[in-house]
Automatic annotation (TrEMBL):
Molecular function in Gene Ontology: N-acetylglucosaminylphosphatidylinositol deacetylase activity
InterPro entries in UniProt: GlcNAc_PI_deacetylase-related, LmbE-like_dom_sf
UniProt protein name: N-acetylglucosaminylphosphatidylinositol deacetylase
PANTHER family, A to Z: N-ACETYLGLUCOSAMINYL-PHOSPHATIDYLINOSITOL DE-N-ACETYLASE, N-ACETYLGLUCOSAMINYL-PHOSPHATIDYLINOSITOL DE-N-ACETYLASE-RELATED
Cellular component annotations (GO), alphabetically ordered: endoplasmic reticulum
Enzyme Commission number(s): 3.5.1.89
Entry's family note: Belongs to the PIGL family.
Enzyme class: hydrolase
Length: 180
């Protein structure tokens, strides 16, 4: 629930506000509040537990596309890395029951880039276009402003370095993803 600084309820509301800016209705937002999955940048979550929760959600919501972090978690955040590990564990698992649930579901993984590329904003677009990737999203100016408005909804997390992220991160303009 985002309770690392005991701000879980605040962060839930901020998430709903951010999703609203992006056109995602509250009924499509699920916050997992599990004692064994604490919001903590230094804690790696249990892969099997998280994989089970994600799989149950995919099945319950009939999801056909999952977008997650890669092994670098974009920022190295242990929870982000754990999410990738859990999705990869379940998606690559060869159990018959798992395959039947994943049959109609594809997984896209957001590629982490080095520090320089991460903070050169739109200047990363030409390089991203030249590098091999499965899916490349280049946001229009309007979409970039929408993404920035959505990020600003997370007021409790907007420390000085996150303001710089919103201004300079290539992820606000361009995202390269690969199929898992």
């Amino acid at each position: 629930s985002g309770n690392y600084y005991n701000q879980g309820e605040i962060r839930k509301k901020e998430l709903e506000e951010s999703c609203c800016v992006l056109g995602i209705p509250p009924s499509d937002v699920t916050v997992i509040d599990h004692r064994d999955l604490p919001d903590n940048p230094a804690v790696e979550w249990d892969t099997q537990l998280l994989a089970t929760i994600v799989l149950e959600h995919i099945e319950a919501k009939n999801i056909n596309l999952v977008v997650t972090f890669d092994a670098g978690g974009v920022s190295g955040h242990a929870n982000h890395v754990s999410l990738y590990a859990a999705v990869r564990y379940r998606y690559c698992c060869l159990e018959i029951t798992i395959l039947s649930l994943w049959a109609g579901c594809r997984v896209l993984v957001l590629e982490s880039v080095g520090l320089v590329r991460k903070y050169i904003s739109f200047l990363d677009v030409p390089l991203s276009c030249l590098l091999p990737t499965d899916v490349l999203f280049i946001l229009s100016e309007e979409e970039t402003e929408q993404a920035k408005r959505a990020m600003r909804c997370h007021r409790s997390q907007l420390l000085w370095f996150r303001h710089l992220y919103v201004l300079f991160s290539r992820y606000m303009v361009v995202n390269s993803l690969r199929l898992l």
